[in-house]
From TrEMBL, chain A:
Keyword list, A-Z: Cell inner membrane, Cell membrane, Membrane, Transmembrane, Transmembrane helix, Transport
Source organism of this protein record: Roseinatronobacter monicus
Cellular localisation: Cell membrane
GO molecular function: transmembrane transporter activity
Name of the protein described by the UniProt record: Monosaccharide ABC transporter membrane protein (CUT2 family)
Positions of transmembrane segments: 12-33, 45-64, 94-116, 122-142, 163-184, 215-237, 249-282, 294-314
Chief place of localization: membrane
Listed GO CC annotations: plasma membrane
The organism's place on the tree of life at top rank: Bacteria
Keyword Lipid metabolism in annotation: no
TrEMBL record, chain B:
Keywords: Cell inner membrane, Cell membrane, Membrane, Transmembrane, Transmembrane helix, Transport
PANTHER family in the cross-refs: ABC TRANSPORTER PERMEASE PROTEIN YPHD-RELATED, ABC TRANSPORTER PERMEASE PROTEIN YPHD-RELATED-RELATED
Transmembrane stretches, start-end: 12-33, 45-64, 71-92, 98-117, 129-148, 168-189, 223-243, 297-315
Main location per the UniProt record: membrane
Bilayer topology annotation: Multi-pass membrane protein
Keyword Transmembrane helix: yes
Top-level taxonomic group: Bacteria
Record keyword Membrane present: yes
Name under which the protein is recorded: Monosaccharide ABC transporter membrane protein (CUT2 family)
Protein's cellular compartments: Cell membrane
Entry's Gene Ontology molecular function annotations: transmembrane transporter activity
Length: 324, 329
């Protein structure tokens, strides 16, 4: 019934399910709360979503390549603690490149194990999640770190500054999203990632260096994490040693919500941005409606399953699964 | 299915390398720590391992089916919250220690219901179990926080919190419950029709359908089993603490998957057994306990466990080249 409607009413709408859901949510929330559709509120939601958003961009590319990355949360803790700690020791000019390099090393380990050795990405990144969490605690001695001089450092720009009235985190997120979108849609590298994720065997036969492409996706993911860490460290001007705990799930939820298939080979950067914004607006809208914070997790649960279900059903051509 | 008699110990060890690892860490910690080789400490290890171990039994079934359940930690927390809270409901006020009975029953039912819900969605929608239970992991944890109001429940009935200290002769009750469940699930998997179907469904779903197995309900039953075991684990954990906190069981899914993978169960489905899982659970239990006794900071335990998990994967890849490590979603 519903599916016939979808077929007849317009495949375009079925394909843009996430966009339709997004608009519906926005309408409902603006009817429920008059504070929702104000410029200030929308700007603050954008700003808050930047950290998860930047990480989700990298994970989207990893997932399009047919793998998973569960280690981004621990990696965010690692990168944030490192950059904040080094800020006072060697200054921000050196702290940022050192942190980016260290984070890229972690990404390279992921990439080596998964891309070159072809190990299962779920278990490898699960192991890395635990190992990196341990690394952070060892490095910080279990202590939280702070930047001593919070006013006199240009490091504050990334989290708190703005250009022409637009907050820096939003600019960074938008810029990165556009760059990645262009890479994935128009450049040879993007096509290779889609090919490797879509059919690994075929991609090898057509001469695509599968190992190197997967390796690169994990480096990109690590790069995104280090950018997110700069924003987070700069905004908070300090870091707890478990600050990224649980981020991997929210990031993955956003990617899945954006319609990227966990099978690999399909997905889009811009839809991930929609997924990120949708999660952020749901959270914001529910809080404005006076709901407790954790209600958003319940809503997220329902939204994820319904979104993925409709997506799967549209491809299958029938609403319910043919599993006996 | 070969006979037990024609398996030499060495060949058995080749097929269950995790038990070799268990023996090595056992000897290592016996030599390194004065307090490790002690009967009381063995009791400790078993009791500590029982929480993760119970869930790992169910995870073995689900993973052999080719699915995964990430929501077990949250299920555990919700069941624990129910087990502790229901005791104090006004309608059971006059029941004395019998008020534990409806509380625990309800907690276990909640676990089974959540498992059934996960399984039903996987069955009917055809959405992958990874996504369904990832959503459930967030959602059920949200339920826990909403239900508990973000605070802890404390058991007022001391019979409840004394239960964990009980022992039958020299054996702690919690360890006995775990070993009993291990035996039951082992028999279920290795001797029953349901167990044979579990391998068949995970090995080749198409073929299983053609062989007349009702794959959907079958997978749902395994999700209900893991829901029950996660809830049982939550109840036992809350008797140990005399309380239920909303954060209970966080990261447990990671420990459980680690134990099951160490035990040789394949994420791709169709392969694995309870003997291996028991080895994986004991390996993790001994490692955590031994490092604790040697006063290794908890930080290093994370690094070591993560490294071991990856090392196992590399070794597995070297020895079983035929099996592709790709995640089937």
């Amino acid at each position: 019934m519903l599916l016939n409607r979808l077929k007849a009413g317009g495949p375009a709408i079925a394909k843009q399910g996430i966009l339709v859901a997004f608009i519906l949510f926005m309408i409902v929330f603006s009817l429920m709360s008059d504070r929702f559709m104000t410029g200030d509120n929308i700007m603050s939601v954008f700003r808050q979503s930047a950290i998860i958003g930047v990480m989700a961009l990298g994970v989207t590319i990893v997932v399009i390549g047919g793998n998973l990355d569960l280690s981004v949360g621990s990696m965010l803790s690692f990168a944030t603690v490192l950059v904040v700690d080094l800020h006072d020791k060697i200054g921000p000019e050196l702290a940022i490149p050192v942190m980016v390099l260290a984070t890229l090393c972690l990404g390279a380990i992921n990439g080596f194990l998964i891309g070159i050795l072809r190990l299962n990405s779920l278990i490898v990144t699960l192991g890395m999640l635990s190992a990196i969490q341990g690394l952070v605690l060892i490095y910080s001695g279990g202590q939280n770190v702070d930047i001593a001089d919070q006013r006199g450092t240009w490091f504050a720009f990334f989290g708190r500054g703005s250009v022409f009235g637009i907050a820096a985190p939003i600019l960074i997120f938008a810029l990165l999203a556009i760059v990645f979108h262009v890479i994935m849609k128009t450049m040879p590298f993007g096509r290779k990632v889609y090919a490797v994720g879509g059919n690994p065997t075929a991609s090898v036969f057509s001469g695509i260096p599968r190992s190197r492409v997967v390796f690169m996706t994990y480096l990109i993911s690590a790069l995104c994490v280090s950018v997110a860490a700069i924003i987070l460290g700069s905004r908070v001007m300090g870091s707890q040693n478990n600050v990224g705990q649980g981020y991997e799930l929210q990031v993955l939820a956003a990617v899945i919500l954006g319609g990227t298939s966990l099978l690999g080979g399909a997905g889009s950067i811009l839809k991930t941005v929609l997924g990120v914004l949708m999660l952020a607006f749901i959270q914001n809208g529910l809080i404005l409606m006076g709901q407790p914070y954790y209600t958003q997790w319940l809503v997220t649960w329902a939204v994820i399953i319904v979104a993925v279900w409709l997506d799967v059903a549209a491809k299958r051509g029938r609403l319910f699964s043919p599993i006996a | 299915m070969s006979n037990l008699t024609d398996i030499t110990p060495l060949r058995w060890l080749m097929r269950n390398p995790i038990w070799g690892f268990v023996v090595i860490v056992f000897i290592f910690f016996s030599l390194m720590s004065d307090h490790f080789f002690d009967y009381r400490n063995f009791q400790n290890i078993l009791v500590q391992a029982s929480t993760i171990g119970l869930i790992a039994l169910g995870m073995t079934l689900v993973m052999i089916n080719g699915n995964i359940d990430l929501s077990v930690g949250a299920t555990l927390a919700l069941a624990a919250a129910f087990a502790v809270d229901v005791q104090s409901w006004a309608m059971f006020a006059t029941w004395g220690s019998w008020q534990i009975l409806p509380a625990v029953s309800l907690a276990l039912l909640v676990g089974i219901a959540l498992g059934a819900f996960n399984g039903f969605i996987v069955w009917k929608t055809g959405v992958d179990a990874f996504i369904v239970t990832l959503g459930a992991m967030l959602g059920i944890r949200g339920l826990v926080f909403v239900y508990t109001g973000e605070s802890s429940f404390y058991a007022m009935n001391f019979a409840y919190s004394d239960f964990s200290a009980l022992s039958v002769g020299p054996f702690p009750v919690l360890a006995l419950i775990f070993l009993f469940c291990t035996l039951i699930v082992h028999l279920l998997l290795s001797r029953s029709v349901h167990g044979r179907n579990t391998y068949a469904v995970g090995g080749n779903r198409e073929a299983a359908v053609n062989a007349g197995i009702r794959v959907g309900p079958h997978m749902m039953i395994n999700f209900m089993i893991i829901g029950f075991l996660a809830a049982l684990s939550g109840v036992l954990l809350s008797t140990q603490m005399g309380a239920a906190t909303p954060n209970l069981g966080r990261d447990y899914e990671l420990w459980v998957i680690t134990a099951v993978v160490l035990g040789g169960t394949k994420l791709t489905g169709g392969k694995g057994d309870i003997v291996g899982t028991l080895g994986g659970v004991l390996a993790i239990g001994i490692l955590r306990n031994g490092m604790n006794l040697m006063q290794v900071p908890a930080f290093y335990v994370y690094v070591i466990l993560g490294s071991i998990l990856i090392a196992v994967l590399i070794l597995d890849k070297r020895f079983n080249r035929a099996t592709d490590g790709g995640l089937r979603l």
